[in-house]
Amino acid sequence: MNVTVGSDSGVVKDKKPVGIYGQIQSSLEKELLTMSYGWDSNESELLQGYKDGTVKMWSINEGVGQTLGEIQLGATQAVRAIRTLADRRLLVGCENGSISLQKVTEEGDAKQLEQMSFSKSLYQLKVDQNDANRIAIGGKNSEISVFDIEKKQQVWRAKNAPNDMLGIAPLIWITDIELVGSDKIVTGTGHAEMRVYDCRKNRSPPAINIKLAKHPILSIKYSNQFENMIIIADSVGNVNSYDIRNGKSIGSYKGNTGSVRCIDVHPTLPLLATVGLDRHLRVFDIDSRKCVQTVYLKQKMSSVLFSAEEPPEPEEEEETTNGYAQQFDDEEEEEEYNDDGGIDDEENEQIWNQIEANAAVAVTKANKKIANKKQQQQVEEEDDEEDDEDFDEDAEFDDDDEGDSDDFGEDDSGDDDDSEDDDEESEEEEPVKSKKRPMVLLTPPNKPNSLKQIKTIS
């Protein structure tokens, strides 16, 4: 599965694993604005539109690019949209409102078939999938309109939103367009508005007009995989999904740290790719809204394309025996393996005997560890008992000392009076119960100059 991204400097990178097409342009006048795959179903052709009015065609194959040709539309016509039609026809929309219809050969030679102009400004051009002759365009101060390029006439035109409370009409700046079915058009504006139009009524104002934030919307994307859901990215890195029936937010895709210039959805898988000024390609799972892969690309990105190719299915793990992969094509090979490469009964018995012997040794070691642990616990208990006996002997020895001191006092007749006096003093020195401390309350004086009255409560 490939993801092709284009940078502001004009370099295009193809992640498989990396292919680089073109050269870095130092001038901002040669900035890459848009990209599209060619007519080949294998997506081997790549078309690039530049700010200087140049359209480059590449033949890409496994990371190797070869220039097929160029189309020069004029230095004042910045290429905003490139759309392929049947019979190798090419529609190129320029910022000044002109639309060029080209015929391109397989060798890369281009011939202009027709030049059209339906408005004074064009920022986006989308082709109706149900009718390739119907295109939707919109730009700055140019409301969204639908034209038939074969009949060269307007089929449908939108009406601006109602005036505000001061009677001022809202500004118009269509930055991106998505056609939803045959009767709805969703637009993102440079004034951070999401508008949903009902194409069944001509000159009808937007059915839903919601101001999402304060920052311009740069890219929106709709996928048939998710009905009634639109994904919108703005100039500060916000990527959110909304319900086009009521304009309510469904969820956000977090991780971008700079302006998101372009987003794309895989044709068949629930994957979303985003690129922008933070120099990263991020791939999100649309269902869980989690980032599943991030690639640093070193340059500021301006466009991204998801290939229709799906990732390969993971290979089944091979069966392993004794560390070596063994695969059997049929039952006969398996039987031959069992007959020729099997283990004899004697070897089998020896193996089991060895296993039993090893198990017996392990059990013996475990029993020894348990016995040693029990013996250690018994020794510790005996040591504790000896310490207790020593403590009891010391206590008895102290009691004997007290008895000897009493006998010595009785034999000494000269100190009888002193001992009696000591006994009386010891009786007097008995601990005295603590009395309650008196509480002192200060009562306010009756007069300003009177003394404080102290009342003691014992």
UniProtKB/TrEMBL annotation:
Pfam families with a match to the protein in the record: WD40
SMART domains membership: WD40
A GO BP entry: ribosomal large subunit biogenesis
Region listing for Disordered, in residue ranges: 306-345, 367-458
Gene3D superfamilies: YVTN repeat-like/Quinoprotein amine dehydrogenase
Statement: the UniProt record of this protein carries the keyword Hydrolase: no
Organism: Heterostelium pallidum (strain ATCC 26659 / Pp 5 / PN500) (Cellular slime mold)
Name the UniProt record assigns to this protein: WD40 repeat-containing protein
Matches recorded under SUPFAM superfamilies: WD40 repeat-like
Entry's Gene Ontology cellular component terms: nucleolus; preribosome, large subunit precursor
Skewed-composition ranges (Acidic residues): 310-320, 328-345, 379-430
